[in-house]
Write a structure and sequence with these properties.
100 residues; 6% strand; flat
Length: 100
Amino acid sequence: MQTDNLILDKLTEIASKLDEQNLLQKTVLNFGEACKYLDVSESHLYKLTSTKQIPHFCPQGKKLYFKRTELDDWLQRNRQSSADEIDALATEYILKNKRK
């Protein structure tokens, strides 16, 4: 019985990994897939679409679709520089703008 449960758990894990791989192969995602891809709740994604904060398509007025590449771009917006990058920029600025 224990072995059966272990096998079922492993099969479930494998099925989940296959679903993730299939999701990464698609270029257009439906609403549920986009929720999984972004790791957000349905209500949060509905809020983002209704306030037009995230790019999406609504071809027939009901169902929502998303381009995976646009979601990637949206996720990578508002990049925060690391402390090392800020220090390097500050040093570069000081060296370029020395008073003569």
